[in-house]
Write a structure and sequence with these properties.
This protein is an alpha/beta fold. The protein has 3 helices and 11 strands, in the order ββαβαββββαββββ. The chain has one domain: Rossmann fold (3-Layer(aba) Sandwich), CATH 3.40.50.2020. The structure holds inosinic acid and magnesium ion.
């Protein structure tokens, strides 16, 4: 189905998303199980608004006690650089027994991920890692290490399962092709 200039045909189906989320949840639970058993805290940090669906589903796929502490980033595109601002920052103190796992919908240029990782690594957190449902590596500007990736997608502007185009399409239950970028 095509609506306007948006191609709503399936790129990553609901079944594939469920399988990806289940596998990521199991990996994350295995990786963090020992530190959580030892008394540390796993804190998921979903990046609003895009990661709302993925963040909720992923949190339920991680069979460990955890906290959820969302943040929101606003970016303004100037003439040359992109200016980024924390519209919602962490609402709790971070100490040496906290493991932050940032949860994103997609890593594109990598600038948002780089900014967040840089920022959170300045806290006292025991560890800071990054998990993204989707990765668009061909568009990278900031080299950034993504610890957990659900799926790699081609250079198209995708929508659905949290990802929007001008605020719309987030509630599609699958990831659609969108528009070639
Ligand atoms: P980056 O800073 O360029 O890596 O972009 C990260 C943010 O841009 C993501 O969190 C998304 O909100 C948005 N974004 C990047 N690519 C897409 C896309 O294909 N569809 C929808 N949003 C996107
Ligand atoms: Mg986003």
């Amino acid at each position: 189905m095509v609506r306007g200039d948006i191609d709503l045909s399936v790129l990553v189906s609901k079944t594939e998303i469920d399988s990806i989320v289940g596998k990521l949840g199991a990996r994350i639970a295995a990786d963090y199980g020992p530190v959580v058993d030892a008394g540390d805290s796993l804190v998921l940090v979903p990046v609003l608004n895009g990661a709302i669906y993925f963040g909720v589903d992923l949190s339920r796929a991680i069979q460990l006690p955890l906290e959820i502490e969302p943040v929101k980033v606003e970016s303004y595109k100037g003439d040359e650089a992109v200016d980024m601002n924390m519209a919602l920052d962490l609402r709790r103190d971070v100490g040496p027994r906290d493991h932050l796992l940032v949860v994103e919908d997609i890593v594109d240029t990598g600038m948002t991920a780089a900014m967040l990782l840089d920022r959170f690594k300045k806290t006292e957190a025991a560890s800071v890692r990054f998990c993204s449902l989707l990765d668009k590596p061909t568009r990278r500007i900031s080299p950034v290490e993504v610890d957990y990736i659900g799926a790699t997608v081609p250079d198209t502007f995708v929508v659905g399962y949290g990802l929007d185009y001008n605020g719309e399409y987030r509630n599609l239950p699958y990831v659609a092709k969108g528009v070639m970028s």
